[in-house]
Design brief:
The radius of gyration is 18 Å and the shape is globular. It has one domain: Undecaprenyl pyrophosphate synthetase (3-Layer(aba) Sandwich), CATH 3.40.1180.10. It is built from eight helices and six strands. Helix content is 43%, strand content 15%. Bound molecules: farnesyl diphosphate.
Length: 245
């Protein structure tokens, strides 16, 4: 398919796609490899999906790389994921910057090793004026934690109860300034939200595929976007043809 055909076939491109990159462990197990080999393959795939996002005209991509619950995994796996993050920044940052990708982080950095915190902050600062794609990295992120932090900040700011609206809450989340996700993709067939963007995803469309994350390549991503193009989003209202079911 030529780039022009791709654009024509995609009737509606989601502005913001968020992804739960699930199934790395099972991908590795199927091949008799350690779980970390699955995360490495998943990282390679991330490059493909970032490129595809730019190609298809997605403006915001949020990826769930490490949840607040993932600290309960074996130490070796946690260290492996922290190392992967450091390696990805070292290896990919210059190219991402050249390609116009703005890196943002959502979640808490404070439990990460200080050198890694610095790496993330430097990468965020370096790319802050890029506009081609905003890549939101959810690392040590949890949706409930995010909402609790927002409530605490609202209370600390002395905002009166009647001034607390959905719009105001959104301004206190890690994702301030980022539109809510239009489409949330979860790979590996699990049908769970897993504490991911629970506020922002209130009206997101979901796309769940049995494909494990390392195999969710450009073409699979494309299929998800085509599927999204056929959805009729209602936001609790009636369908665009007037029907209610
Ligand atoms: C879930 O699969 C995946 C993760 C918890 C980590 C996702 C990380 C990557 C794709 C690497 C990219 C990371 C960074 C930091 C840029 P799982 O291990 O739960 O799979 P399973 O359910 O099959 O065990």
């Amino acid at each position: 398919m030529t780039p022009k055909d791709v654009k024509t076939a995609l009737t509606k491109v989601p502005t913001h796609v968020a992804i739960i990159m699930d199934g790395n462990g099972r991908w590795a197990k199927k091949r008799g490899l350690p779980r970390l080999a699955g995360h490495k393959a998943g990282t390679e795939n991330l490059r493909r999906v970032i490129r595809a996002s730019v190609e298809f005209g997605v403006k915001y991509l949020t990826i769930y790389a490490f949840s607040t619950e993932n600290w309960g995994r074996p130490q070796e796996e946690i260290e492996g994921l922290l190392n992967i993050l450091a390696e990805v920044i070292d290896r990919e940052l210059n190219e991402l910057h050249r390609e116009g990708v703005q890196l943002r982080h959502i979640g808490h950095l404070d439990r990460l090793p200080p050198t890694l915190q610095e790496k993330v902050l430097d990468a965020v600062e370096l790319t802050q004026n890029n506009t081609r794609l905003v890549l939101n990295l959810a690392f040590n992120y949890g949706g409930r934690d995010e909402i609790v932090c927002a409530m605490r900040d609202i209370i600390r700011a002395g905002i009166p109860a009647e001034k607390v609206t959905p719009e105001l809450v959104s301004e206190y989340l890690f994702t301030v300034g980022v539109p809510d996700p239009d489409l949330i993709i979860r790979t590996s067939g699990e049908m769970r939200v897993s504490n991911f963007l629970i506020w922002q995803g209130a009206y997101s469309e979901w796309y769940i595929t049995p494909t494990f994350w390392p195999d969710f390549d450009r073409d699979e991503f494309y299929k998800a976007l085509v599927d999204f193009g056929h959805r009729d989003r209602r936001y609790g209202l009636v369908a665009s043809d007037g029907s209610i079911d």
